[in-house]
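Researcher: Here's a chain I'd like modeled. Treat it as a single chain, no partners, no ligands.
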Amino acid sequence: MATPTPSNLSRRERQIMDILYRRGRATAAEVMADLPGEPNSSTVRTQLRVLERKGFVRHEEAGLRYVYLPAVPRHAARKSALRNLVQTFFDGSVENVVGALLGGEGARVTDEELDRIAALVAKARKDGTR
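Model: Modeled as a single isolated chain. Structure tokens:
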């Protein structure tokens, strides 16, 4: 099966995945308790089944309950989401992303962060990981 991509997720599904990544594992009731608003129990269970069908979640049986766990490592989901974001909003340009992060009124990048970014760029040049 192909690696699931976060671009296939609704806002609520992303919230559920965030909860599972944070907790590591959770029952439907625990997920429901952590979700904003007042989600319906059957809706949360349905969304967990959908996430399982999409390949993002798996479950284990613990007595009479299902315990849900992320099936995709967070770093893989993060990479996929970032690729989708760059493609969708920045025309696939890493330069445009960096420009957006460094420029503008809301950008508050410290000298230390700029030094670390420069080190990452130098490493990418050296390693050929562009």
